[in-house]
Each structure stands twice: as structure tokens, then as C-alpha cells.
Amino acid sequence: MRVLLLYPEFPDTFWSFKHALRFIRKKASFPPLGLLTIAALLPSDWELRLVDLNVERLREQDLQWAEMAMVSAMVAQRDSATEVIERCAGAGLTIVAGGPLFFGEYDAFPKVDHFVLDEGECTLPLFLKDWAAGAPQRLYRASEYADLAATPQPRWDLLNFNLYSGMCIQFSRGCPFDCEFCSITAMFGRRPRVKTTAQVLAELDGLYERGWRGGVFFVDDNFIGNKRVLKNDVLPALIEWRRGKRGFGFHTEVSVNLADDPELLRLMVAAGFEKVFVGIETPDNLSLAECNKRQNEGRDLIATVRTMQQAGLEVQGGFIVGFDADTPSIFERQIEFIQKSGIVSAMVGLLQAPHGTRLYQRMEQEGRLLNQFSGNNTDNTMNFEPKMDLDTLHAGYERILTTIYSPAAYYRRVKTFLAEYQPPASVRPVLEREYIAAFFRSILELGIKGKERIEYWKLVLWAAFRRPAVFSQAITLAIYGFHFRRICELYVAQPSNA
What we know:
This protein is an alpha/beta fold. The chain has helices spanning 18-21, 33-41, 60-65, 78-90, 100-103, 120-132, 184-188, 197-209, 227-241, 262-270, 285-290, 301-311, 330-341, 358-365, 390-404, 407-420, 433-449, 453-466, 471-491, and strands at 2-7, 47-52, 68-72, 94-98, 114-116, 139-140, 166-169, 172-173, 193-194, 215-218, 250-254, 273-281, 314-321, 346-350. The strands form 3 sheets. A 6-stranded parallel beta sheet has the order 2-1-3-4-5-6, sandwiched between helices. The chain has a 6-stranded parallel beta sheet with strand order 7-10-11-12-13-14, with helices on one face. Strands 8-9 form a two-stranded antiparallel ribbon. It is globular and about 65 Å long.
């Protein structure tokens, strides 16, 4: 069986980092880990070809070669997935689909022959058994969660590593919290399930043996969901594994309570973690209570962020407006929080109600659902009727973006972060030619041609003479700002130059 593993294209969003990646001549941030794992579950005699549309085109010769197409997609990839499915159907391929996009709306894709949903470790073997028997069903759902100890190592051999700025692996699935708007617990449950330490090290060995020396993203829904295993097994093993190795700085997603555990924080930094993404959501306690974000309620979130930053972690943050409890004052409060916190990469979006979440169910019961969930938190749309006047909400949302990503505010936030940040000694980056070239490209694009050139040179000179230890981070964050402003120009009609 000749199989195309197809990953549709993402739209241009904050998370794509598309405009920053061109500085280092990369096509995408990360490869499709889910498809690489699915590939390892397929029969060994099947011929596989991966086509990630974020880094290459789907060619007619690929379609002519294949007998089956397996498509995996996030909700934000809906438009590209629809086009891919149309092309595969036109080529007469058997189409198998899975992933979050199809989790809640598989009925919207009539040209897909078979849906293998939920966790592939549970449902793909059922499909393969029926396929071998000549009687495959259209829909496969799981009645239980996967045992990650049985998850195979991803098929790294299918990748062209040179096209990506980072690699990714997974340690756990699930999250112990139950935020109303989050689809993670709907898909993976509230009991974090983990791989063994040996599995994690084997996956890293696989990357290392193939010459990878860059960053690695642990794609866990909440990396610290099982603290005991991390502190007793995984993190000490990572510290030992990295001895004598250059590169391999890690980043992941965590909840704010990481700041409450000094030992865990110390171990993560010692193990090579450089960045963490944290769902801050909002500084408003009423809105936090509304969405059941209990771990964030009643705490000084600025102090929480600074605890992680001072330990040696760059904190990236997710922020949301559009809660029922929000009032028009929330927009300035979000701006003030983001600026004071020094969270440089602040991903701000309008609240959405994904399929399967308690928020979706509540909006459905209240008759407030509008259109389909876009999966793109920067497209200025909501899939339910908000309590706040929609024009006021849109204007306030645009105000946040145009303010925090204007050159003056953005570069001021970079300095707020870097002024106290101490880069961990545990990470020894490999200084490759592409990153040196990126610095000179930044001089041209940002320091000479860019409207932010005054702010750029102020940051460069400040870092060079006052904080040389963070000079490389300063340049990286300046390049990120270039990307964020391009996204604002896409989604906001007249971005501020303030």
C-alpha cells in the first residue's frame, strides 16, 4: 500500500512565526508530530511519503503515486484540509482522516472515506484490522484513552530536518484542570498520562543521531500535570542526558502553578528548558471564575510570571477577551498587564467555543452559537454571541493588538523582560551560520528599512553594552516583533505606529 501522509497548511497567525522564520531560511516551526507517530503505527511493508504543505507543495506525481491519503489537521487548517481532500478525491485515492479538525465536525467532510478519530493508538489498529479483512468502517471512535507507554517512536526518517526551525516530542497527554473553553480535557481527559523516561530519551536519541542540535518543543497539554514523575524520573534523566551535548534547548506548555514549586522550576531549568507557554487568559478574577480557570484565580499573576522569568524561563502567554464578565475596561487592563509582565510573545485572541467543550455546550443551551469554530484566535471572529456589544469588543481587541505590538510598546516590553532575565547556564546553543546571517538580515530589515529602526538600535546597543549575556535573545525577540506586526497588519486595518 502506497500512502501519502498529508498535513494541510496553516493560515498566517501569531503561532505560525512565518515572517520570522524567513530570517533563518526555514519554512515552518515544527513538523507534524501526530502524523509521524501514526506512520510508526502503520504496517512495516506499506510505502509512506510525508507531504507537509507548510514546507512543500502537494504535487500531481505524489497523487499519482499514492493509493491512500491519510490527512491530519487542526481546526485552523480547515480551508487547506478541504482543498487537500478535494484533490485526493479527484485523484481517486482512499481518504482517511483524523485529528482535532474532524473530532467535532466529521459530518462536514463527505468525501472522506474513513474517519479514525480520538487517539490513533486506540483507533488506528481497529481500522487496519478491518482494512486487512476488506471491511473497513467509515467511523472509528475510542471508548478509552491510550496507554502512552505503548506509543512508538515517531518516524523521523520521513522528515527533511532542514526545513524546520525546531523539532517536537511528547511526554504526556491530558490536563488536571478543567477550563470551560479548553478542548484538551474533552479529547484527552483530566488524568495526565505519560510516556516512560526511556521512551522520552529514545526519542531524543533518535533526533540526536540524525544530527539535530536545535530546539525541541514538548507538545504536552500541560507538561507539569504529573509533577511526581517529572521530579523523580524524567527531569533528572534529561539533566544527565544533556551532559556534554550542545543545543537541545527545550520549551513546553505549563500552568501557572509551576511558580509555586521551586524544586520543579529549578529542575526544569537545569534540564534545559528555556521557554514556557502559560495560559494567563485575563487579569480579571470574575472572568477567571467564569471559565473555571481556578489555578489562576486569587493570585498575583505579575509576580507569578516574574518568578518564572527570574528562574531562567522566557514566559510566553495566552490572553483572551470576550468573556461574559468582561467590561470595556478589560482592554486597557490587558494592555497594562502585558506591558508590566514583560511577556514579549503575548498571544491575544477573542474567546472561541470549540466543539466538545463545556463552553460550547453552554452556548448551545443558551442559543448563542453562531458559526463554526475557526481555530484561529487572531481572525477577529467569534462563534457565539458575546454579552458585550460586538463593535465595542472588536474595537477593544484591535486596540490591544495595535498597542502591544507597536514598536515603542513592544521593544519596551522586551527590555522589561531582559533587564532581569538570567539565561540559564544549562543551555549552550549551537551558533550556526544561519543565525549569524539572521542577525545581519535583521540589521537590514529592522535597523535600516523598518519603521521600528530607532527602537531596534536602542535595543541592540543596550543589549550589547549593558546585557551582552542576552544579546542573542534580544535579536531573536526583535525578529519576533517583526512577525507580530505583520500579523497585526493582516488582521487589523490600520495598525498604530505609536
